[in-house]
């Protein structure tokens, strides 16, 4: 500032030009840095959200075994019927999977493990408790399986109980979501009648 | 140079005034991200993004009888107990409906009671698509907060930008002084459903 007011001449105009150049550069830098900052700050939230949602289905044919979360998953059985204390127009459904363990660190691979049923309209049902209905012997739900201390090569049967309305029972398909694989999840074809 | 400094000062002053004005006039962040109301009346089915809710019945009582850990308890109040019966269904995926608020005519809000502790028929209600479920919400309210009140039901207590069903309670009968005409002396939460009118 003082240079400008005390020494007018070629040096001052050079200074001025340099200042203008830097101002322009700063403006351009702002246009680049601002979107970058926004992207950087939202990246973590976006990644966390993607890892928490079952968004993209990987369809699996019946009888096929698919590697998922370090193990091989296969739909073992899907059966429904009237059992226990159910609301009107509702069915009890039990879905079971036979899983061959590849990576035995289930606490890491299967974190947030979720069995679901989906229907043709895209609705989703999570496991429920029905008074008077329990899982068949030898079947555990996936949360208990995480802490069961399985070894590599073991085959475990994972299953859960669901309540599904009458209008959905014809099109339901079982699905599996795991923390280590999200946003992808497995959606299994129903066993042929 | 003088003018330049003065000009800068004016710009600075204007910025301060503008920022302050915006700060005092703009809504608070919590209001900007507040739940989005879905309005309806009693006996209507209201769609609130993740769940559908229908208000079936409101019963008032002076005392509440409940079984807690195998012991019969009688909960009294200096106001009134309002036992609200709703029918809940999930829209797209199994979810929970956990938050109920009684909003009085002047905007006073009464959150659902926590005196009952954990009970299966109390929130959070687990709901599934296509399966209607009866869900109770229990409030402790002063008797003058009934006429013109509304019921707010949301999936969780702090759900920014999530839907909140706002059900007008105009269908609840009240007498001339605003109090409900029938108040049960005692409501038994463990008795089978039909108790009281409306």
Summarize the structure in words.
The complex is a heterodimer of chains A (193) and B (198). By secondary structure, chain A is α+β, with helices and mostly antiparallel strands. Chain A has a five-stranded mixed sheet with strand order 1-10-9-5-6, with no helix packed on it. In chain A, strands 2-3-4-8-7 form a five-stranded mixed sheet. Helices cover 28% and strands 32% of the residues of chain A. Chain A has two domains: 2-50; 56-188, Immunoglobulin-like (Sandwich), CATH 2.60.40.1240. Chain A has four helices and ten strands; from the N terminus they run ααββββαβββαβββ. Chain B folds into two domains: 1-32; 33-188, Immunoglobulin-like. Helix content of chain B is 14%, strand content 43%. In chain B, strands 2, 3, 4, 9, 12 and 13 form a six-stranded mixed sheet that branches. Chain B has a five-stranded mixed sheet with strand order 1-11-10-6-7, with no helix packed on it. Chain B has a two-stranded antiparallel ribbon with strand order 5-8. Chain B is elongated. Classes of the chains: A alpha+beta (193), B mainly beta (198). The interface between A and B is medium-sized, with 15 and 11 residues.
Cα(first) to Cα(last) distance of chain B is 79 Å
Global structural class of chain A: alpha+beta
Q: Structurally, how many domains make up the residues of chain A?
A: 2
Order of helices and strands of chain B: HHEEEEEEEEEEEEE
Shape of chain B: elongated
